[in-house]
Amino acid sequence: MSLNRRDFVTRSAATAAGAALVGGAPLAAASPAAAASEEPSAAELAKHPVKESFTVMGTSDMHGRVLNWDYFTDAEYDDAAHNDVGLAKISTLVNRVRTQKGHHRTLLIDAGDIIQGTQLSYYYARVEPITGKKPPKHPMAEAMNAIGYDAAALGNHEFNYGIPTVRAFEEQLEFPLLGANALHAKNEKPAFPPYVIRELYLGRGRPLKVGILGLTNPGIAVWDKANVAGQMVFPGIVEMAAKYVPRMKAAGADVVVVAAHSGIDEPTTYGDQLPWPEDASGEMAATVPGIDAVLVGHTHKEVAQRLIVNKKTGKTVVLSEPLCWAQRLSCFDFEVEFSKGHWQVTKVSSRVLNTNTVPEDPRIVKLIGAQHKKVVAYVNQVIGTCKADLSISEARFKDVPIIDLIGRVQADAVKAALAKTSYANLPVLAQAAPFNRTAHIPAGTVKLRDAAGLYIYENTLEARILTGAQIKDYLEYSAKFFAQLAPGDPVDLDKLTNQQDTPDYNFDSVYGVSYDIDISKPVGSRITGLSFDGKPIDAAAQFVLAVNNYRANGGGNFPHVASAKQVWTNSDEIRNTMIAWVKAKGVIDPAQFAAVNWRLVRAGVPLF
């Protein structure tokens, strides 16, 4: 069954008797008429208000994970903490909560980033796309429909494949895809439903109306500029919450839950390019009256419970963020009271449930079994061979060949593209970052999944013109990734990197130049010995920088690059460029590209 946006309110009303959707089918519940005969009188309610409870469950940042499987290693997913991933595990937890609480006392929502992140989701966006003439079912849509989600918010990664793919995914869902701040550019009217109101019949009193507001990240306008510019705009989270929460209350919502694809209080990664903060869930809870709970997303963190007092009402708002990739399920446990014709929230708390404590739901495993098998075959295609074992394990603090490989592929692609242009004689440099700490290209046979595991994002490639001085500024900014250590201080690798909350993907090295990063010096004056072609770099000289679209559009807030002149752009993913490069070469030979072009030093003495 596929519902359009007009059906959402109708379906909410149809399930007012407390029916929870499982696999698209409502479960039987007591009829309002039958329950009404058991309701206490108004006088009794005045003396003894009805007290009830219900639970709102939530996921976020699932990034294409249905099964507990890693398509990059072609094995069951596992990490050092023995976490498990996937909607099949979430389904088991959801079923348990519904059994414990009663199906009619639960709702299930998501806070975005659903359709990007694994080769499973990539396959149905690019290889056998859901936008085709005979579109296949998207495995994430099938699984979420079967589990019985009530609503989901848009995430920024929903737009990685373009608006048509988001729309095709939306059409396959049996619940609304919400985005109160995702607007049509021409008239700034909602491009997606801003909110939905679900009704829970708790047995006595009138149905409890739970309003679910969906908000996504304004950074979409920066990160996916090529896909959304001129078509959609994404204003601030706090501002749009302030607009829609009163409307939800006016529409009868007794409880307001926000699914926000935005962290609580993290620093922004797009600087002054937009007037709104990236991670605004905390500010929203503190400044917008009427919100009871916030399902947080975007930052891939686990927050079981965070309490924020609203400055205007003095009321405590409960926030929870489940760990990404369907590793955790957040549960907001509500206590409510029906008195004088109204439901009122008397208590809210939140917790997270761990998917590694339960088995996969065999129903979900079976449901997408054929799709899973097809993708496993796809990622195991042989694309070439490699003369040496290449690992990314030390890439955060050493120049390693596997990162040089990314730089070489990007530089080759840009050189070929500019060969017959006026920029053909400019030297080409290339930006690269360590995306995946488990990436590995083995000696011997190389499969598609090996290359895909090295470049896990759907970034495309651009070429921008920067000067030597700007390249130095760029590298200085990147070097904030490291802690400051005086000569002789002990080196703790766990504390050496990721300073200022900088993720690995925002630590760039530049292929084609040589330099030292002196971590004994403060941020902003760490790059020493910067040279090109064996000579100190000319500050005024022009260079072409091969750079991914995320960085080129301002992602990470690196200096100069977003405003630099664009001389070439490509619509194909860098991952595919890498796969094509390996296929064309046949053999990956590190001797052709690997060199120690940068190193960490303290007062000129190498750290390693």
From TrEMBL:
Keywords: Hydrolase, Nucleotide-binding, Signal. InterPro entries: 5'-Nucleotdase_C, 5'-Nucleotdase_C_sf, 5'-Nucleotdase_CS, 5_nucleotidase/apyrase, Calcineurin-like_PHP, Metallo-depent_PP-like, TAT_signal. Residues 1-35 form the signal peptide. Residues 55-301 form the Calcineurin-like phosphoesterase domain. It holds the Pfam family 5_nucleotid_C. The keyword Transmembrane does not apply. The keyword Signal applies. Residues 382-562 form the 5'-Nucleotidase C-terminal domain. It comes from the Bacteria. Belongs to the 5'-nucleotidase family. This is 5'-nucleotidase C-terminal domain-containing protein.
